[in-house]
Each structure stands twice: as C-alpha cells, then as structure tokens.
Specification:
The complex is a heterodimer of chains A (77) and B (238). Helices cover 36% and strands 13% of the residues of chain A. Chain A has 77 residues and is α+β, with helices and mostly antiparallel strands. The model of chain B has no long low-confidence stretch (mean pLDDT 95). Chain B is α/β, with parallel strands linked by helices and 238 residues long. The chains are: A alpha+beta (77), B alpha/beta (238).
C-alpha cells in the first residue's frame, strides 16, 4: 500500500526533501513523501483481497481526509 | 486555586495510554481545581462512574502510523464514545485531541507542523466561544497564555469542513498572531456539534500553578470541573 498526502495538501516533508535535493544540484520539480505498508496475505480471490485492502486503508492505514492510497500487488517468487 | 469547601467533587476520568505523559499533570490540575480525578488505564473496557473524561497529551503508541490512529482502537475508547454520545463531557488535550479526531468524535485531522519542528513554548490563544462547558469561566475574546508542545499540531480541515466549523461557531480557541504549527485559520481548539466534546493543542494542565508561569489553563479545566459538578446535580440523562 502506498499512502501519501492528497494532491493540494501541503506536504512539509516533501517540501523539505525538495529543497534538499535542489541544494544537492538535482533538477526536481516536486516531491511528496508518503509511506509504504507491506502486507503479506495468503492466496485468495484477487478482487476479494483488494476489497479487504481498501477497507484496511479506509479504516486505519490512511486518513481519507488528508491521504490518498494506492494498492499494488507483488507476487512472491 | 482550591475549591470552596463542601462543594461536591465531580469525578473526572483521566485515561492513560501507553505513551501518555501528561496524565499526571492532568490529575494534579483537576484535583487542585476541585474535581476527583480517576485514573483509567486504556485497556479497561468500562469507564468508572464519572461526569467527564480527559484524554491527556503524550505520544500514545509512539505516534506510530499517525498520531492517535492506534489509540483510538484502545479498549476504553468504546466507553469514551458512549459517554460522549450520552452528552457527558470529553476533553482531549494535544495527543488527546489527535485521538478524538482519529476516532471521529471531532472532525478534521492533525498533521505535522509546517515547520517540521517540534514546538514547545507558551502561545496566546483567543477564546472564540465562552459559552461552552470548557470555556464558561472565560470571557469572549479573552486571550489565554498556555504552553504548546507538539510536533503534529497543524489542524487541517478541507474548505467545506472549515466553512462548516466557522458557520456553526465550533472554533473555540484560535492562536493569536502567527500559529505555532500552520493550523488552518489559526485553529487551536474545536468542539463537536453538541458542544460536549472538545479538543485543543495547548496544554491547560501545564498552566494552573503560578510557579510555572501562567495560570490561564485553569480557565479551561476549571470550566470543565464547574460543568461536570453541575451535571452531578442533574438527574442522569438517558
């Protein structure tokens, strides 16, 4: 799960990172800092699992007022 | 600061979460203002018979995930919610404010200070509403000098919520001058629609003794004690 500040919401961490990257001479237009939550789940119906993950984000992992989230599936090798 | 003799002492629960650190000061301040503070551990499912609850400041659950996000799932919170629904008084200070927002008992969210720095100093906060149970000892427009100490005190409400808060006069305290944390509209404290739940970032429990500077915190906590004492006299609302 990728959780990050919603577009339009000031992200002071992102601004600080942006400033520092520029200070190092990198050409960067914008920076947003979020967090990654790795979850391990057994095999299951992909749509059911996705619905469960969305519920987890809505209820705990993200604060829907200020944060958006994306769900990415990574198959174990 | 002591209460007049023979006045009944309202019972006020002070909840301790793992990582709370202002629970001790809250207990001392409430006792000094004439209440009977009742310490409650977060793992309790039932609250004792109390007229009010204070969720104190600190860093519950290490502020993991988001400040207050894990504490709102503590066993005691179901009872806190029930007590609030029942119309009794709930005050959240700092981390307590964050917990009330995460629990949905207050609207909005508290985010990292714009400066990204932890801020620890006295602030001046203006009383926007002197007719709440938490500010009834104040004058409308009075300025209170109370310390803040937080890293995540930037109150956020989107435009719609902010308009609603302002239109319904639920902003109870507002920072005077520059906000210490970047809060939208300088908001330092808000109440719920029914007016019986309030959260604020400044710490009234740290400002009740002249020894440490201001005693303006007693306006807030004293109001709470007065209102709680009054509710003692009323038949229990069902």
């Amino acid at each position: 799960m990728l959780v990050r500040p919603k577009p339009g919401i000031l992200d002071p961490q992102g601004e600080a990172v942006l400033g520092s990257l520029r200070q190092l001479g990198f050409a960067v237009d914008d920076a947003r800092v979020g967090r990654v939550v790795d979850l391990e789940l057994g095999n299951g119906d992909r749509e059911h699992v996705r619905a469960e993950l969305e519920r987890m984000c809505e209820r705990l992992l993200a604060n829907p007022l200020i944060e958006s989230y994306e769900i990415e599936f990574v198959e174990e090798a | 600061m002591s209460a007049p003799a023979r006045e009944p002492k309202p019972r006020v629960a002070v909840v301790t979460f793992p990582g709370s650190n202002d629970d001790g000061d809250a207990v001392l301040a409430l006792a000094g203002l004439g209440a009977e503070p009742v310490p409650v551990w977060h793992a309790e499912r039932e609250l004792p018979d109390v007229q009010a609850v204070v969720l104190p400041g600190g860093f519950s659950y290490g502020d993991y995930l988001r400040a207050g996000a894990l504490a709102r799932l503590a066993p005691v919170m179901d009872s806190v919610r029930a007590l609030a629904t029942d119309g009794r008084l709930v005050l959240g200070v700092c981390n307590g404010f964050q917990i009330l927002c995460e629990a949905g008992l207050l609207p909005g969210a508290l985010r990292a200070n714009h400066s990204l720095s932890f801020v620890c100093r006295d602030v001046e906060a203006r009383v926007e509403r002197a007719d709440t149970p938490f500010t009834r000892r104040c004058r409308q427009g009075q300025s209170l000098r109370i310390p803040v100490k937080h890293g995540e005190g930037c109150f956020f409400a989107d435009a719609e919520l902010l308009a609603d808060l302002e239109a319904s006069s639920r902003v109870v305290l507002r920072y005077e001058g520059e906000s210490p944390n970047g809060s939208v509209a300088g908001i330092a404290g808000i109440a719920n629609a029914d007016g019986n739940v309030m959260g604020l970032m400044p710490h009234p429990e740290h400002a009740v003794d002249p020894l440490v500077g201001s005693t303006d915190g007693a306006f807030i906590l004293g109001s709470l004690v007065d209102a709680a004492r009054e509710s003692l006299a009323e038949p229990a609302a069902v």
